[in-house]
Amino acid sequence: MRRAFLAVLLAALATAPKAPKGPNSKPGCQPSCGGVDIPYPFGIGEGCFREGFEITCKNSAPILGINIRVLNLSVTPRPEAKVILPVAYQCYNIKGEVLHKDQGNVNFNTAVDAYRISNTRNELFVLGCNTFTMTNSGRKGRHQFRYYTGCVAYASDSMDLEGVEDGTCAGVGCCHVDIPPDLTDNTMRFANDENGNWLHSNQAFCPCDYAFIVEKGHYTFRTADLRMDGGETSMPQVLDWAIRGRRGDSSPSCTEAATMPDYVCVSNHSKCVNSTNGPGYFCNCTQGYEGNPYLPNGCTNIDECARPEQFPCHGVCHDTEGSYECKCRPGYHSFRDPKEVFCSPTFPRQARIAIGVGLGVFFLVVVLLLGLIMHQRKKLAENFEMNGGNILKRVTGLTIFTEKDLKKITNNNSKCLGNGFFGKVYKGTLPDISETVVAVKSFIKVDEERIEEFTEEVMIQLKMNHPNVLKLMGCCLQLDVPMLVYEFAANGSLRDTLHRNKRQNLSTELRLDIAIGSAKGLSYMHSQDIRHGDVKPDNILLSDKLIPKISDFGLSKLLKLGEKIAQKVVGCEGYMDPVFRNTGLLTRKSDVYSFGVVLLELISRKQMVYGQSGSLVIEFRHIYETEHSGRSMFDEEIVAEENIIILEEIGKLAMQCLKERQDGRPEMAEVAEQLVKLRKNTVDWKEYIERVLPTRRQQ
C-alpha cells in the first residue's frame, strides 16, 4: 500500500501543472496543504471557498468531502481534481461464499452537485477469474439507472493464468472499458451466482474479484494483482468539476449564469465555458492571459517572449498586453510573418561574403567550444536522468544541488572526513546565512535497475524528520555517482567514541543519554513503518553536543516498500537478528535485537568481538544467567556505588532485547520509555547517595 501510494504521489507531482502567476487563493486564506496548491473556488476555512468546494487539511493532507485524499487541483485549462480512492473488492472462501467485500461506495457531492467522474480521463478495470462487474450513472430510465457499463474477467483455472503476460488485460483475469459521462458517484456491482453463472467455489488460485475506476495510463495489469490486499490498495482518479446548482436544482449555462449575481468568472480577461461532462459551466482566461479567472485580477498577461518553444519568433520579440510582437532585427527582412519563417539579411552579396569569411573562423572556434560545452552538459543531463532526477526534481522539500554547487560547498573536495561504505565522505559548508556545516558522501552507482531503489531510499530518508535521525539536506545527481548531503556530526560515530578514543571520559549519565536518543530515533523510524536493518555503533553518529543521530538506514534500501522479506541478507554478523539471518524476515524486533548489542557496548565499553575470541553477547549472557548480574562485565570507569543499580537495569533491558524469539522482545518505544525512566532515576539515586546514605553509615 505504501509503495502504491508513493507511486501515485510521484506521478501526481510529475504531472501537476505549474502554479500560475498572480493570485491563486483568496486573500488571507491558506494557499496549500501538504504540497498541494488550493486554488479558489476551492479553499480551506470559512469564507475561503465557494459552496461545494471546501477542502479540509488533515495531518498535512488535503481532504475533499468525507475523507477523500486530494493529489492535485487545477483550475485552467481543464477544471479537474485528482484524488486517490480505494478499490472495490469481494473475496470468497473455498465454497464460493462471500467472506468480505467493499463495493467502493463514494459520493463526491453533498449539498452542491459539483463533481463528475471524468469519462475521458479514466477507465474501468475488473480483475478476477469468473466475475462480471459494472458501474452505473444517470437519471432513471427503463431501469434504475440510465447508463450501465462493465466487463467480464474470466479464467477457468490457474493454467489459464500461466499464459497471461503482465501488461496484458484482454479478458483473461483482467478486462477494462471506457466509462459513460455524468457519473456523479460510484458503486461497483459484482454479479452474484444465483443462476450458477458466476461461481467462485474451488477457486483458491483467484480468491477475490476487484473493480476500480483509475486514471488512464496509470494502471498496468500484473497477474500478482489477482491476490492483492483489496483493503490496502488505492488508485488515482480524475474528477471533472463545474459551477453547478445545489442538488435537485438546475445548473446554469454560460448564457444564464452571466446575468446571475453569483457569476464566478470575475477576473478581467476571463471567459465562460459550458461544461462538457454534465450541466453547468467553468471559467478560463482569454487568449494571451493565464491564472485564476475566479478571482479579481486573477488572469494576468503571459510573457510570450519568455516561452519561445510555445510562442515562436524568428526575429526580435516584444511582449504586449495579451499578445506579442515579432519583427526582424535591423538589417534583415521577411516576406512573411517572422513568427513563422526566418528573417533574411538585407546586406549586398559582396558584403555578406566578406562578413561570412571573417566570421567563419570565429564561428568554427565557437562551434568547437560549444561542442565541448554541449558534450559536458549532455553528460550532466544523462547522469541527472540516470540517477532519477526526473522523479526527484518533483519532490517537495528536496534540495537538488548542481555539480557547480557541490564544488563550492566542499571547496573542491578539499577536506576528506574518511571513507564511507560506498566512497569518500567530504566536509562542506552550505552557502546559507548560518553557513551550515554538512557531510557529503557518495552513494552506489545507479543504473536502470537501481533507479527505483535509489529514489525510494531518498524518499525514505527525506521523510525522516527527528532530532535523533541524521537529516538528509539534499543531493547532487549530475555526477556519475550521486552524492548525498547530510547534516554534519562533529564527533563521528559511537564506535569511534567508545573504542577508538579510550581517553574520552564517558559518564553513566552521558552513556544513558546516548542510549535514550538512539532508541527514540529508532522508535520514530518504526512509527513511520521503516526498519533500519543495520543498527550498530558505526551507524549512530554523535553531534558536537554528543546528541546521537541514526544514520545509514542500511537494509531499508533492500526492501521494497510494504514488504518484510529482504531479497538478500546482509549486515554486520554480530549485530544481526538470528531470525533475520536464518529467514530473511526483517521486522522492528530485528532492530531491537541489534540495539541490545549496542546497549552492552555502552555499559561495558567492549567491542562486539574483543580480545582473541571474546563474544560480548555470549559472555554477557552466560555471566548474567549464572551470576544474575553483569557487574563483572561493566566498564571499570563507571562502576561506582551510585551507578551500579542503573547499570544492572540497562544490562537487564539488553537481555530482554537479545531474546531469541522476536515475540519475547520489547518494542523500541518500550525500550526508549524504560531508558528515560532510568535516566530520571539517576538523579533520584544521586540525591539518595549524597543525602541519605552517609547518615545511615554514621549510624
TrEMBL record:
Q: Subcellular location, in the record's words?
A: Membrane
Report the Gene3D superfamilies cross-referenced here.
Laminin, Phosphorylase Kinase, domain 1, Transferase(Phosphotransferase) domain 1
Show the stretches that span the lipid bilayer: 353-373
Please give the Gene Ontology molecular function terms for this protein.
ATP binding; calcium ion binding; polysaccharide binding; protein serine/threonine kinase activity
Q: Where is the Protein kinase domain?
A: 411-689
Q: Does the keyword Cell inner membrane apply?
A: no
- The highest taxon in the source lineage is Eukaryota
Assign the protein's first listed, main location to one coarse class: membrane
What are the alphabetically sorted keywords of the record?
ATP-binding, Disulfide bond, EGF-like domain, Glycoprotein, Kinase, Membrane, Nucleotide-binding, Repeat, Serine/threonine-protein kinase, Signal, Transferase, Transmembrane, Transmembrane helix
Bilayer topology annotation: Single-pass type I membrane protein
What does UniProt give as the signal peptide span?
1-20
Keyword Disulfide bond in the entry? The reply is yes
Cellular component aspect of the GO annotation: plasma membrane
Q: Which residues bind ATP?
A: 441
Q: Which SUPFAM superfamilies match?
A: EGF/Laminin, Protein kinase-like (PK-like)
Tell me the ranges covered by the EGF-like domain, including all copies: 301-344
According to its UniProt entry, the protein's GO biological process terms are:
cell surface receptor signaling pathway
Q: What is this protein called?
A: Protein kinase domain-containing protein
As recorded in Swiss-Prot or TrEMBL, the protein's gene is named: LOC123439247
